[in-house]
UniProtKB/TrEMBL annotation:
Cofactor: Zn(2+)
Gene Ontology BP, a term: proteolysis
Protein name stated in the entry: M3 family metallopeptidase
Transmembrane annotation, as ranges: none
Length: 686
């Protein structure tokens, strides 16, 4: 069916598993549907609150959960197209709807009628007889209080104004980050042809010079293979300088205004800082606890980095001369040299064995089948938002349909950077709707007829994002607002990071690590080296992450009077790195402030640390898997482990305390020391 009007987007889809229909979707059509969906949901909120009947689960909580069904359908189409397709029209549409979305959220957060009715319902729900309903009601009520339901009218009006401006800034910042990747491209002179490495990096030859677009991260992958120090250093400078006013894009003013507004918002709601606000609904107990954990790991990491630096400097002097001094752009280049000396096979040697098709089907899917008994059936007839998107039906072990999985793996011009999972249809215990989930990546698309060959980091991305997909597919909560990945941010990364471990499992490697031409398995020593290399270079990888996480936290731990204006953004960042113990001249943050979309584009504001807090649980859970009663069966790759993970931590969503779910599997709280061991840093004492 071709979408012809807003009503088509709001109506249930007739496609398999209620897969949203993208055929005919335009920005204008989506905007009309979104606004009508918001109107419908607000009308239903008012009706629920004004009902003369005594509140029951059916007429209050269930009704509230289902009130936004039409809006959710429109949002699934719209935000998929904004992020996975992009372009000026979709960017303008996103900017156009931002104010409406803020108004809509504000209308809910200040709806005292709904709050009072939920409060009355909670008094009648027996937590022992219906613990899930009681937990969800408590969470709703806490969210109302957290968003200022008790504020007076003037404070509510100011909060609304702040949220409107924050929404606009975050949208503008995200767009600027995408624009800056192209606008800030490094221009290589003296190169008259594209090497395979340059082509794989998306470089183009324009008017006799090579232009290398930037990636999301500071440390560009091309740095590992650039033999010229001039080009390495130039590419690193270009990466760090993006969006800082030295070119066509400047986000510093947005950052300065945003952190000031966030501070005001947090204090208006009764918190000492925005960092405290961000941690309030997390698994982590406090911002101080997060800060202490990250700084302790940073101390351990700096010691590991010192050892890595010494070895790299020796290689640099041997290649460039005794007077050569390492610069930030040199690290990954000489790290690859060290890898070549340490291991037989380089990153490029691995690529012929890492065919995307085989990685997904014989790696990611195979591991999921071994663990959970689920199977995957291709659905080439299902069309999505791009011809590159592929679809698979997912079935339980008994043959029943579990949901639909979509994979959108290749980059395109206006697509948002990075990789992510999102739900197009969420599992719904009230209606029986099955989940439709997607993984979206930015791998280089091969020429027609050629295989898509990945790096090992790309492989880990595939397993990571599918961990999120499993979280959505296995969702079994009664209430859709608390199902699947709708959990605290420092728990949402737990299933994804945990799923990475199966990429290293020998039986999984044996399935997907095969030459793309011959189909022959990689030599045994390659498998051994992949396992051994898991902790290689972790000093660098850990410190660049910790630098971003702690700088993000620092930005949001200061009062407005302590925060800089636009001209002082870079100075503040440098001082924050020093304060937090993560400053290193050779290892810049994974994301510098001016292109840190996680925190300034929204989603992970003052919460980039959540990846590491999740890793606390991951590292400890990996130990449980390797030590538990089922560990002797295929080194944990078995149905007993899968059932424990599925029903213990994946299926419940946020229908219970996440730590309680974790304990239900392991019988213990996670051990913080496990992180240092997992990253190979256990030999460095703080």
């Amino acid at each position: 069916m071709t979408l012809t009007c807003a009503a088509d987007l709001l109506a249930p889809s007739s496609l398999p598993v209620s897969m949203p229909d993208f055929d005919g979707a335009t920005p204008q059509l989506c905007l009309e549907a979104l606004r009508e969906g918001m109107r419908l949901e607000r009308t239903r909120w008012d009706e629920i609150a004004a009902s003369p009947e005594a509140p029951t689960l059916a007429n209050t909580l269930d009704a509230l959960e289902l009130a936004g069904a039409e809006l959710e359908r429109a949002e699934a189409v719209f935000f998929t197209l904004v992020s996975a397709v992009g372009g000026e029209e979709w960017d303008r549409a996103e900017a156009d709807i931002t104010a409406d979305a803020v108004d809509h959220a504000h209308a809910f957060a200040t709806h005292r009628g709904l709050y009072r009715r939920l409060l009355a319902l909670r008094e009648s729900v027996d937590a022992e007889r219906d613990p899930e309903a009681a937990f969800v009601l408590d969470d709703y009520l806490a969210s109302f209080r957290r968003e200022g339901i008790d504020l007076d009218a003037a404070a509510h009006e100011r909060l609304h104004d702040i949220d409107q401006r924050i929404g606009a800034i975050e949208q503008a910042f995200g767009k600027a980050c995408v624009d800056a990747r192209t606008a800030g491209a490094y221009r290589m002179t003296g190169v008259d042809a594209l090497t395979p490495e340059l082509a794989a990096a998306g470089a183009t030859l324009v008017d006799g010079e090579v232009r290398v677009p930037l990636t999301n991260y500071t440390s560009h992958p091309l740095l590992a293979s650039l033999a010229s120090p001039t080009h390495r250093h130039g590419l690193m400078r270009a990466s760090l300088a993006r969006a800082n006013g030295s070119g066509d894009v400047d986000t510093r003013g947005l950052v300065a205004e945003l952190v000031t507004l966030r501070d005001e918002r947090a204090r208006l709601l009764g918190f000492d800082s925005f960092a405290d606000y961000a941690v309030d609904d997390a698994v982590a107990p406090s911002a101080d606890a997060v800060r202490d954990m990250l700084r302790d790991l940073a101390r351990r990491t700096q010691r590991a980095v010192a050892g890595e630096e010494e070895r790299l400097a020796e290689l640099a002097r041997a290649e460039e001369g005794e007077d050569y001094r390492l610069a930030a752009g040199d690290w990954t280049y000489f790290e690859e040299k060290l890898r070549a000396k340490t291991f037989t096979f380089s990153s490029e040697d691995l690529r012929p064995y890492l065919d995307l098709e085989r990685v997904i089907v014989d790696g990611v899917f195979y591991a999921a089948t071994r663990l959970y008994g689920i199977t995957f059936t291709p659905r080439p007839d299902i069309r999505a938002w791009s011809e590159d998107v592929r679809a698979w039906e997912v079935h339980n072990e008994d043959g029943s349909l579990l949901g639909l999985f979509l994979g959108d793996y290749f980059t395109s011009e206006h697509k948002a950077g990075g990789a992510w999972m999102h739900e197009l249809v969420g599992a719904n215990g009230l209606t029986g709707d099955l989940p439709v989930v997607a993984n979206t990546c930015n791998f280089t698309k091969p020429a027609p007829g050629e295989p898509a060959l990945l790096s090992w980091d790309d492989v880990i991305t595939c397993f990571h994002e599918f961990g999120h997909a499993l979280h959505g597919l296995f969702a079994a909560s009664r209430y859709p607002s608390h199902a699947g990945t709708s959990v605290p941010r420092d728990f949402v990364e737990f299933p994804s990071q945990l799923n990475e471990m199966w990429a290293y499992h020998p039986q999984v490697l044996a399935r997907f690590l095969r030459h793309h031409e011959t189909g022959l398995p990689a030599p045994r020593e390659v498998v051994d080296e992949i396992t051994a290399s898991r902790t290689f270079g972790q000093g660098f990888a850990t410190l660049e992450y910790l630098a971003s996480a702690l700088i993000d936290l620092d930005w949001h731990s200061h009062s407005a009077s302590e925060l800089p204006d636009a001209a002082g953004v870079e100075e503040f960042e440098a001082a924050a790195a020093e304060r937090c113990g993560v400053a290193h001249p050779l290892i810049p943050p994974r994301y510098a402030t001016t292109y840190f979309a996680h925190t300034f584009g929204g989603g992970y504001a003052a919460a980039y640390w959540s990846y590491m807090w999740a890793e606390l649980m991951v590292a400890d859970m990996e130990n449980w898997i390797s030590e538990g009663p089922s560990a002797g069966i295929d080194q944990g790759l078995n149905r007993a482990v899968g059932e424990a993970l599925r029903h213990g931590v994946l299926a419940p969503g946020h229908s219970d305390d996440p730590l309680a779910a974790y304990r239900s599997v392991t019988g213990r709280d996670p051990d913080p020391a496990a992180v240092a061991h997992r990253r190979g840093l256990e030999g460095t004492r703080s």
